[in-house]
Amino acid sequence: MSNTNRYDREELKRLLAQHSLKFGTFTLASGKTASYYLDCRNLTLHPKGANVIAAGILERLSAMPAMPDAVGGMAIGADPITAAVVTVAGQRDLPLVGFMVRKEPKGHGTGRQVEGPVSPGQKVVIVEDVITSGGSALAAVKAAREFGLEVIGVIGIIDRLAGGQEAFAAEGIELQTLLTVRDFGIEA
Q: Is residue 178 part of a domain?
């Protein structure tokens, strides 16, 4: 069996550089212009990338004082991360479930904004691909809290070092990331 079931930080850097990091002029979701773009969907939907990311997130979760009950985040970006983490957790016989946060509550059926096998009172970690200002993950935190979940942290794949850390700290939430842009020689 390959070593994709353990976290290999250097492999994640290599895969991210190969599949996700692009240089040029790009307009970000925030409206700001940047000289590089990180399209982590190319990595979270890649077989090796998904496994390395899941292993890295599980390593971070295992280092917490207590393993959370669930991981999840804002649809659609966090969905493949959540699926990968839950799949690898299942292979390791860990009782970790996933959930997703809709951008808006459903207008039919149960009308829920938080979907998945979670219940109020459970401890959860929000997962995210790229952390810039933290806006998307903070929206997921808000929805999870409104649902009654206890958010005990946020784990992202890469931090652009553009204010996300401070935004989470202001909400009393610890942000951890597997990498930062400095790992690629980019200064924020």
A: yes
Taking the C-alpha atoms of residue 126 and residue 81, their distance in angstroms, rounded to an integer, is 10
Nearest CA-CA partner of 103 in 133, 142, 68, 129:
142
Does 64 reside within a domain? yes
**CATH number of the domain that 95 lies in?**
3.40.50.2020
Residue 19 lies in a domain: no
- Look at residue 10 and tell me if it is in a domain: no
Q: Closest Cα to residue 51, out of 94, 28, 81? A: 81
Question: 3-state DSSP helix/strand/coil percent for the chain, to nearest 5?
Answer: 40, 25, 35
| The total number of residues written for the chain in this structure | 188
What gap in Å lies between CA 56 and CA 40, rounded to an integer? 15
Q: Is the overall model pTM greater than 0.90, yes or no?
A: yes
Taking only the tens place, the pLDDT of each residue in 91-144 is: 999 999 999 999 887 666 667 899 999 999 999 999 999 999 999 999 999 999
Number of domains in the chain: 1
Residue matched to tokens 């979940």: 149
